[in-house]
Amino acid sequence: MQQFDLIIVGGGLAGASLAVALRDTRLRIALVEHQAPRRPEGWDSRIYAVSPANVAFLDAIGAWKHLDAARMSPIRGMQVQGDAGGEIAFSAYETGVPELAWIIESSLMACEFWESAKRQSNLTLLCPARPQALEMRDEAAVLTLADGQVLSAQLLVAADGRDSWVREAAGLLAHNTPYGEKGLVANFITERPHRSVAYQWFRDDGVLAYLPLPGDKISVVWSAPDALADEMCGLSEQALADRVADAGGHVLGGFSPLTPAAAFPLRLMRVPQTVAPRLALLGDAAHGIHPLSGHGINLGFQDAAELARLLSQAPPWQDIGYERFLQRYQRARREETQLMQTATDGLRRLFRESVPGLRPLRNVGMRLTNQLPYFKNTLVRYALGAF
Ligand SMILES: Cc1cc2nc3c(=O)[nH]c(=O)nc-3n(C[C@H](O)[C@H](O)[C@H](O)COP(=O)(O)OP(=O)(O)OC[C@H]3O[C@@H](n4cnc5c(N)ncnc54)[C@H](O)[C@@H]3O)c2cc1C
Questions:
Q1: Which residues line ligand 1 (CB under 6 A)?
Q2: How confident is the model over 7-61, as pLDDT tens digits?
Q3: Phi, psi of 365 (to 5 degrees)
Q4: Among the atoms of ligand 1, which is closest to the Cα of residue 14?
Q5: Mean predicted confidence (pLDDT) in 263-291
Q6: Is the pTM of this model over 0.85?
Q7: 31 partner at 20 to 30 Å CA-CA among 86, 174, 224, 307?
Q8: Which superfamily, per CATH, for 2-42+107-175+268-349?
């Protein structure tokens, strides 16, 4: 049996960033991942809007300075439009920050973490590897891998995504509410410059977002009802580009395709208990959120930052798998996660409900918010993690 202090299952963005954040600690870490990340040719259609709070986290763990600046774009302004004339605009300048977020390809960050993890002296990288059996003993979590290796540690971290094997094997509940929608993602070249502005439309057929990429390129996320998302995935690349440009009122002129479209099913997932004796859940294993607020990976990075802070500050005699100790992590992350899930879910419902009278009301609400600079800036600073 190989003994560690910490086993992380899942080397996606959440799990790998936790591993890297712990590189200067005395902890002996095993990272179990079944597939190493790789860069696609051209541009990745999986793109994240990384908040300033998480840029600070990436900087603190030494990853930020290694990311290729030519592949990233700041968001300096944002325009959000309702479905009946409602409008709200945010700007970095008015909020008093250099940028509202950075748009970064998923695989760019994933490969940087992976390279860093490979060089990490307190880390054993087990890849390709999958867990097969889990036994929670009083003194340790014991994980048997499919190739027969047996690992044990005081603490097991489940960072294996929304269908987490570890969460299931440990018997922790997850309440799933499918949205009946898919997130359609694709990148395009635009006729007109985006000037680092992101656009979002709350439409009858879902929420459409244009996110700026370097040059005259954008990434599009359209959260659309399943049937529409499937129909759009079946279109030719140019027909989809025309459809997406049309839906945004040609605000950036015509589009030509840059990457093929991909679609992923959306669901709200609430996990009442994210720690148990010898276990902590991280990232998508701990929560699922609608992509309209762009907070999926931002919550995951903040989970990693918080757990890394707790583990690295623990005295040497601390049993890091002790449930009371892990509850500090659960408490620290619960409020932000629930608030983001509730706010995002509420916003999505507000624009999907067809109750008479609601349409004008929600659009007036947007216009009013737009005219209340203090309230608006408070909202945006909270979303940026600036408090
Ligand atoms: C198909 C898809 C596309 C998405 N596209 C976007 C997008 O464009 N924009 C956006 O903002 N959000 C997107 N999301 C949501 C976003 O990807 C997540 O919020 C984020 O990736 C969560 O990171 P994570 O590290 O917690 O989980 P994941 O990224 O799911 O990482 C989990 C890791 O665990 C590994 N793993 C899983 N099971 C096992 C196992 N049994 N054994 C070993 N390893 C295992 C996986 O290989 C993976 O590396 C998408 C989600 C999906 C599913």
A1: 9-15, 32-35, 46-48, 130-131, 159-161, 165, 185, 221, 264, 283-284, 291, 294, 296-297, 300
A2: 999 999 999 999 999 999 999 999 999 999 999 889 998 999 999 999 999 999 9
A3: -55, -40
A4: 25
A5: 94
A6: yes
A7: 174
A8: FAD/NAD(P)-binding domain (3.50.50.60)
